[in-house]
Amino acid sequence: DIEVVAAFDVDQRKVGRDVHAAIFAKPNCTTVFCIDLPPAGVTVRMGKILDGIADHMKDYPDNHAFVLSEEPEPTATEIIKVLKESGAQILTNYLPVGSEDATRFYADCALEAGVAFVNNIPVFIASDAAWAKRFADKNLPIIGDDIKSQMGATITHRILTDLFKKRGVKLKRTHQLNTGGNTDFLNMLEQKRLATKKESKTEAYRPWPPGVCRTKTSMSAPVTTCLGRKTTRSLSFAWRASFLVTCP
């Protein structure tokens, strides 16, 4: 079982509220499949901003973007204290894609607090040898980097490429479009935030051993498209992924 004992955010619609209410607050636009959540007894605290929010986000309506809390940002010492006093065992990182400095900040806090770190975004921590060693030296688990949705474009892409291999098809080129309608995708319109995202997804499409076939992964430019808020949730158009297949 997972018990939430502490939470951090930077949006004023979430900071200061119980977790059970904060998770549904704007700019969240995901489908709600469980509305009867009991109070968690955990108040969302102000987090560290750093590079979590792209500059262009201020040009969008509040319902689509982040509304920064006026609460003072905590120091690393304060966050470490919360992690220790709350009894946390695992710190999960779900910062916006491209939050390089902020992710490293929280990873450092996890190390100092003596808790495991699960990195759910494509900023290379677990896959970085130096970071991995720091956690290993303290006998702390580090898991990541990035996370797949249950049935999104990435896992569908991998299964299809594996299927082609098993059916004797030599796949030379693939093309996938990442399209979404949530605030994270809007934040990702700042192209510099996408470097590690593209690398993470490209690596996910290389399951074949050398010599089996020649593969090349191509991602559109811009890599990520935001649909706007016409949708009520984040969309991953797995069915829109197109495959260019050359048979022998």
Walk me through the structure.
This protein is α/β, with parallel strands linked by helices and 248 residues long. It has two domains: 8-143, Rossmann fold (3-Layer(aba) Sandwich); 153-244, Dihydrodipicolinate Reductase, domain 2. The protein contains seven helices and eight strands; from the N terminus they run βαβαβαβαβαβααββ. Helix 3 (100-113) links the parallel strand 3 (90-93) and strand 4. The chain is globular. Residues 152-204 form the Myo-inositol-1-phosphate synthase GAPDH-like domain. Pfam families: Inos-1-P_synth. This is Myo-inositol-1-phosphate synthase GAPDH-like domain-containing protein. One of its GO terms (molecular function) is inositol-3-phosphate synthase activity.
Task: Explain the layout of strands and helices.
Layout: E1 8-9, H1 19-22, E2 45-46, H2 76-86, E3 90-93, H3 100-113, E4 116-119, H4 129-137, E5 142-143, H5 153-166, E6 173-180, H6 183-187, H7 195-204, E7 217-226, E8 242-244
Parallel strand pairs: 1-2, 3-4, 4-5, 6-7
Antiparallel strand pairs: 6-8
Helix pairs in contact: 2-3
Biggest sheet, open or closed, and with what strands and sense?
A: 3 strands, parallel
Report the helical percentage. 25-40%
Distance N terminus to C terminus? 50 Å
Shape descriptor reads globular
Strand order of the largest sheet: 3-4-5
Whole-number mean pLDDT = 80
Q: Please report the total strand number as a whole number.
A: 8
Summed up, the helix count is 7
Give the SSE string: EHEHEHEHEHEHHEE
**CATH-defined fold name of the largest domain:** Rossmann fold
**Into how many domains do the coordinates divide?**
2
CATH class placement of the largest domain: Alpha Beta
C-alpha Rg (nearest Å) = 20 Å
Strand content: 5-15%
